[in-house]
Specification:
Organism: Opitutus terrae (strain DSM 11246 / JCM 15787 / PB90-1)
CATH topology: Alpha-Beta Plaits
Radius of gyration: 17 Å
Protein name: Nitrogen regulatory protein P-II
Keywords: Nucleotide-binding, Phosphoprotein
Pfam family, one: P-II
Distance between the termini: 9 Å
Structural class: alpha+beta
GO molecular function: ATP binding; enzyme regulator activity
Amino acid sequence: MKLVTAIIKPFKLEEIKAALAEIQVEGMTVTEVKGFGRQKGHTEIYRGTEYTVDFLPKVRIEILAADESVPKILETIISTAKTGKIGDGKIFISAAEDVVRIRTDERGEAAL
């Protein structure tokens, strides 16, 4: 099993959620986060004063999936999230040792 974590632009969330539903991704966790990468934030002027906005709003999507599903999930997220502009985001893939469904005590892929 793998944990796929994608950091994306907030306005892409609904589009990605719909695309993942089409490939039968049944569950995900979504968190609003803030951060920056190479773009290092930006400056804004508010009431005549310039402010540096270091942390930009992003959305973090976490999906626990079977190994064979990961390439299709990656392809779907990349093709849907890509705008070609800086700040499109990143995807991290980590190994997941085990998962337990609390309600039924199921473990491993049966708990997905």
